[in-house]
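Quick question: what would this complex look like in 3D?
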Amino acid sequence: MNTKHVLNGLLQNKFLTLPAYERLLGELYPLNAGKWLSARLLWAGAGFVLAGVICFFAANWQHLGQMLKLGLPLAGLLACGLGAWHKGVQNAAGQAFGFGAGVFIGVFLAVFGQVYQTGAFVYQLFGPWCLLLVPLAVLLRNKWFWLMTVYVGAVYWISKSFSWNPTWPLWYGINGLFIAAWALAEVLVRQNGRVFCRFLWVPFSVFNLYFALMERVYFAKEWTFLIFALVFAAAALVYAWYSKDLVLWAWNAFMLAGLGSMWAAEVLPFYFFISAGFFAVAGGAVAWAWPRLREDKHHE
Amino acid sequence: MNNEQILQQVEPALRQQAKAFLLEQQKTSPLSFLLKALLFVGALCGAGLLVSGFFSLFSARHFWVQGVLFTGAGWFFLYKWQADQTALGLFLRQLGGLFVLGGQILFMSELDTWLGYQYWWLAALIIAAVSYPLFRSSFNRFFWCALAVSLCCDKLIDDLSLGATACGLIGLVLFAAGAWIFIKRRFTFYPLAYALLWGCAWVGGVDAFSHAPACFNGVNWLLAVLAGVYLYKALAGHKKRGLGVAVGAVCALVLNWPSVLALAGMYLGRRLRENVLEWLALAGLVCGLVVFYFSLNISLTYKSLFLIGPGVLMLWARSAYAK
């Protein structure tokens, strides 16, 4: 229980007066208005300027010359590269410049394709972009950058495999949701040693779900994707158990429940009840594994 | 600062009781957020299965009986395992809370049929008023209060065909009421305070959709007058706050009212050390600014300059402030 909760409890039970409570709170958590305001002004200011610059070029794109169109992302790439070199890639600012460079590579490829009308498919942009991101990812050693690289590669693979169809927004939604959930898990359980395998696993688990969905929507008679997804998730569950990774265990258990629900929707009656049953079993599996895989248990 | 130092601030006559209270609090080891979330998924599935099973058996009949049954069962779970701080106790309490929620929804449905569907707002208000003292779950309190506030505001705006100014005034009143609860530290009423802020955001949304593109500007003059009065008082007393309030007054004149109130919410959250309030206000500010941007009736080039200008100003203010 943190100190603020202690103070809240004392005030609520009338052991403290309101002025005494405010005084203690002020001593415990000094306002430091300068630091607070400075951080917010930096985020807001940078965000406004960036949004304004993007809007400015978007508004005047048709009137820009080819050289300028190609030169802008190259200038951005150069500026970010110089910034990263100047600050050093181990520095937070240097890593931010590295991210900027990664984004500008993609922007340059997109502009190149548009200016010269290369006739390439959209997915062909993502393949080279992913390849060019890999050396940067190795240099930066940043898990978020690796995630971006894997994500770009995923877009390439998926869009190469299937032509554009209306389920694409759904796929992006699912992908985004899984990445957000993974990020939450990262924040909640800071286990730096095991981060890498988890974050590589997450995009693959997204493919699992996506392929299973695609199979259900477009290839009703093909069971390959669903079987592959189930085998992969089950294998990952076993891996999570042996590596004593609770988050991965929980993730896999719920993934299996989701895949099981899809299967149930295809072949079984009372789909809702069976799906809820699968998720309840997954919850039970997590509750069962909790005391066995818990972090502090390993250190006892 | 440890507990002993905190206890020094307690009146001597109450110190022993306060010490016993703190020792009791320390006995319980809080469960992690992840475990709580996972247990909640399980409780949601369990409660969903049971409620939908009952519904499929009895269909839309005997809602009163089903409501009493679920609310009663939920009540039993909540109070039987009230003191159990283990994961099992938490799971059963979550299950109880969801049973109660299911029962309340059935009650509301029955009330709707009884009162007539045009009185949704009254049904929600009755459930919220009766449930608040009976169930201590923050989520339950917030849910019903937020529903009641949203439906009441909708009813008011639709029936009286209120314009942008009236919407702004309603938003202002809701925000002021919520802020008052936070400032007075009435912890029991925090769910109500969050519901009032939700209502404020709801009215903002209704205003944006109903009165676009000329929405949100109705109460700028009032906000600017309020900021001006505060500025006058600040200049008379604490001169340091003068610049901040002057910026606030300009914002109040230029921006839409949800963005201004969100800025005030961020300030309030920071002053009161209420992080949740501050983050919610930040989310509100982003939404308010997005709506503001799209409501500007100027070309994209001017819009981009409109973004770059304040951005540069903010970065300059930051560097000047740092010096």
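Answer marked as accepted. Chain B touches chain A through 59 residues (CB under 8 Å).
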